[in-house]
Queue: 4 jobs
Job 1
Amino acid sequence: MDFACSSLPQAHKVNLARQPSSPVNSCSLGSVSVIGFSLPQFTSPSLSKCLRKQSSYGSVRACVAVEQKTRTAIIRIGTRGSPLALAQAYETREKLQSKHPELTEDGAIHIEIIKTTGDKILSQPLADIGGKGLFTKEIDEALINGHIDIAVHSMKDVPTYLPEKTILPCNLPREDVRDAFICLTAASLAELPAGSVVGTASLRRKSQILHKYPSLAVEENFRGNVQTRLSKLQGGKVHATLLALAGLKRLSMTENVASILSLDEMLPAVAQGAIGIACRTGDDKMANYLASLNHEETRLAVACERAFLTTLDGSCRTPIAGYAAKDEDGNCFFRGLVASPDGTRVLETSRKGPYVFEDMVKMGQDAGQELLSRAGPGFFGN
């Protein structure tokens, strides 16, 4: 097995080190290969030394393993190469293996790492790149072309319209949907001094921050994976940032959290915290595997939220938030929000109804239509 390893500087309060139990830090990854990345070539037939970039703060190893396949994989999983994307792929693999003993054999599940457009263009804000499927297009193409069997996505990255010849029948149990506040000097957004700069590439976060805290500034071109953004924060490029708590939990990096924002303070992105798994239309074998993993409560909530997003025709240029969940009575409670990019106007609505697919989709659509009507033409500036 060959390893390509990178290092990240450790911070004092923002601790970039992951816990040993983190699946991303495990070098026993099973069968993994890489598409679209330039990796060092090793000549060792078994285990070669990890490349380690040293810094004055020490180093943290983030390993990607590349193995020779010793057998034909039963399932080839396609994913991005970020530590969070890999953690989600490993979670998928572990759930498949726990339910299907034949998948526990060496090489039965192979992870294919695919570089996407969103991974390649890091110098511009997402809103400036434009288009949909920035983090999914190349993975979907690999699925359609038969290079992989299933595709593991962060659901908030998935366009509202799936590519032809694919279906997305499976959502894993949803993680915490809230956003986390990360800062070296303050415990909350409210404690930041006027003029402080918050780094976020999300227009949803930007608009809600500026709406509630107009004295703050937002750095939009704050891109990169979780580790990169934490490193930028520790290096003083911004005073604070917001990250999805779900990703920090999956990476075992919650020690970096200064506080967790309530849903009233920061409504999450549509489908935040949810993992979706796609396969080809007509691939009954993969569809049956995915059916065994599907968490129906999450699937219905995501369907409600995505119906809301579809109605608004949301994109990276549109500040939209939405969250559906089962309340104490077993009903669906949905909250939706649209905002002007500068945060000067924020419109919100809510719905409540049966926790049933058709009803929830209708709730999302109805909420979207209401906000479209209230916003009026030109509200989003595009």
Note: The mean pLDDT is 83.
Job 2
Amino acid sequence: MVDFQSPTKTIYTNPPCNVSTSSSHLRYTLLNLKDKSLTHKSLLLMEISSLSKTVALLVLLLATLTTLSLGQGNRGSGSGTRLGYYRSSCPRAESIVQSVVRFAVQANPTIAPGLLRMFFHDCFVNGCDASILIDGPSTEKTAGPNSLLRGFEVIDAAKSQLETTCPGVVSCADIVALAARDSVVLTGGRSWQVRLGRRDGLVSQASDTANLPAFNDPISVQIRKFADKGLNTQDLVTLVGGHTIGTAACALFSYRLYNFNNTNGPDPDINPAFLPQLRALCPNGGDALRRVALDTGSDNSFRNSFYENLRNGRGVIESDAKLWSDRRTQRFVQRYFGGRGQTGSRFNAEFGRAMVKMGNVEVKTGTQGEIRRVCTATN
């Protein structure tokens, strides 16, 4: 063991022996040790520096992945929305919307499917941001796919009451989401919890509706349009099940009855026994705006009979009918109509799940967008 004392003193070793050393030799030894110490420090600093760079790179990578995750998450994960969002700021928000929707649906049952479609059409264009509500000469509301939607006055009535109760708090986008859920419940469907906290969009353009799913889209196109919103094939089949309530104008499907694909005959997917019924409702050259139930016998009742009708060749619009004739979607249709005596509980549960997922497509939260004072115009 070596005991270093002052540079001018003797260095003792164990066992004791007298070792005489010069001052210069001792200084050289100390300097050498100092150099070694500095070398070790340098190496240590280099290691720390290298480690710091590695940590920094890892942090940067994590931040990037987090950003990407949040960007994708807004498609359907509910990032930025949550349950009980208005619990403190506007505790009666949900009950006020529910009351307004109930009154409207009881007075006019066709309001329910209108509000459900409105939510779907809103979410598929720039996310669930109530851009479909804005008035103007070239807004989403004026686009062809939205021209027959109904229920806008219900949203306005709910907003008016909410502004009286808690001004500047509840977004129009959240009102649309709640109204869609309440419409399903009022027609016999199962309820689900709605995540809230959406903010209202600032832009509404009719041209942006071009990518809405159309009544004559092939299955491959439908799958792609849903996938673009982070929704899978099961979500597609589930959400289209919302057609169990509501109607379609003859103009959207009469081509299937008389001259499908220029064949001078009907669409072969239509059950021959169902064809006369549709032709009686929509005669060739007749009223193009006449409404026909999308789910025969169940246009005001939310249930899984829609899928059974698809299986039986009783799908009214082409895009619906193709869900049964294409193997990619048929298995989900089969899963939902169930067997004899089944009530469609699986469909009801899955519909709520899919609505939550769609309801968080590209939502605006935090400082994005605004809380409109009236739903028909930006602030």
Note: The chain has a mean pLDDT of 84.
Job 3
Amino acid sequence: MALMMKQSAGLKAVSAARSRKSVVVRAGKYDEELIKTANTVASKGRGILAMDESNATCGKRLDSIGVENTEENRRAYRELLCTTPGLGQFISGAILFEETLYQSTKDGRKFVDAMKAENIVPGIKVDKGLVPLANTNGESWCMGLDGLDKRCAEYYKAGARFAKWRSVVSIPHGPSIIAARDCAYGLARYAAIAQNAGLVPIVEPEVLLDGEHDIDRCLEVQEAIWAETFKYMADNKVMFEGILLKPAMVTPGADCPNRAGPAKVAEYTLKMLRRRVPPAVPGIMFLSGGQSELESTLNLNAMNQQPNPWHVSFSYARALQNTVLKTWQGKAENVPVAQAALLKRAKANSDAQLGKYDPTTEGKEAAQGMYEKGYVY
């Protein structure tokens, strides 16, 4: 009997040891680098310049100022952004389109090297865009998982150190269970693949501004999609210390008559984040989603009026570039003043990240709305 008890105790000990082995924290090849990169991007007073528009979308921007959509004109505009002196004081990372990752300045410097000289971490858009999701009410799913591991490895060799994948959630068109699940699972698979290639994944299930819904409905949908996304990221063993999030702010829909000021947007957005986002995540880098330059900066500033468990900052495209593009007008002689406009917007959002933004310094152009229904990136 005593022998049987000893054997039983021995088996239990072996079983417990095996169980402990099975839950050992992952130790991936790039873990330390991923954590360092994520914390560099999520550094005090700095945020992300999103300049990863597709060639077609960049063409629309150029067309708005009467400039032809050619590779050289796209390169010239992106050189203006990448080489702005002093930009690294306010910008910690820049998301690039694949074409831009391999481009160079007029004097032959790689864009990635120009950014690194300013202490700006190069990032890369890795998804392949949105397509209709079958058997839904006009919802979308995001392509790009096929071959993603090989693309990420090549992007790492080219100097990229973080990645972005944008999926969307539409409130007017759903969101259906299948669309939300596809969005969350796709983001989780992408995040795991990116981390295994040394790239910090920016996780972006964008709840679109389209619709007449109120702020409470937006909160409900945001909480649901982030719960689903974190569930699948945990299942895929994504290391939360080596990711960044790019959520939409919790706001009423663009066509909702009941608008919300910065204090209410901050209250609802931070409520959602505290309910869903582990403090292990280093940074929350908000998208502007068609808000005006002024509105997006005011909302960010309101969120930083109290301490937060994460770095709460920005990853803006139009909200940083709108005035810059209009100032440039495709003319070489306008580059210095356009770069000054970029620095002004970057500093405004840097101040907002610190909770010290002063809107009295803004001009009328900053309040111009940029919302586009059904916006395609």
Note: Residues 313 and 353 are 5 Å apart (CA to CA).
Job 4
Amino acid sequence: MRKAVLVTGASSGVGLALCKRLLEEDHELHLCLACRNRSKAEAVRAALLASRPLAEVSIVQVDVSDLQSVFRASRELKQRFQRLDYVYLNAGIMPNPQLNIKALFSGLFSRKVIHMFSTAEGLLTQEDKITADGLQEVFETNVFGHFILIQELAPLLCHSDSPSQLIWTSSRNARKSNFCLEDIQHSRGQEPYSSSKYAVDLLSVAVNRNFNSRGLYSSVVCPGTMVTNMTCGILPPFVWTLLMPIIWLLRFFANAFTLTPYNGTEALVWLFHQKPESLNPLTKYLSATTGFGSNYVMTQKMDLDEDTAEKFYQSLLELEKHVRATIQKRNH
């Protein structure tokens, strides 16, 4: 029986590279591309099938920053699938990233230069906005839209006979200092991306605590520092050109510089082969690349505690009730 894999954000970057690599690992997969843009998804599907004709590749149109779209896609998936073996929760945004030039130059001449480039800690701020659902866009896209997707797809994911696995794209930039339980959407801060990725880490831990007994397991991954559509907008092209030789050199001292989406998927593909019940729920799996270009997987204990994770999960459940009631009123 074919394994069924759902990948959000599958039409570019890490998501696209992951789809290609998964089909290299198992060319008979049923791979479902969950994308906002159907025409881009159709082009990706055609390219994947051209190289792997034995695979089954389907599309579901979903925008995780629009809850109506998430509900619609969930209904469609429940009609099509009896179960999902893997869900890669990869779609995400970092809107209008602004580089802190002062922090960049002070970091360049400090002992923390490698850490700064590896994690972007203190380097980037973003301008967030409110979605049609009345939520902060980064929070809804990176966290809450995926949370609702999981809630809706629970019948396809919870099977005691054989476990299903959630695999989240998190980040080394997930900082505890940027997250606050009293402001889970980070509406009062300037680093919503970092906050959202820390929220993803918390949510993964809470999912394990609440769903392992029902056969659903969750893990988080950091794909490393890459040049993708998301990161290209941070700096002008000529600055990237100047920085790339330095970044290549830094790879001999820090393994976080995976640089390409293909390299960045190393940990995501590694998890595809693991028994989820054997994994530590408090561990983050990091894609890493040596200075000579060899890929491998590292582990890192997450900087969080299970009580905070559970409180965050309860906050999401409360927000879910409120949002569902609002949508119901709107539709009537």
Note: The first strand starts at residue 4 and ends at 8.
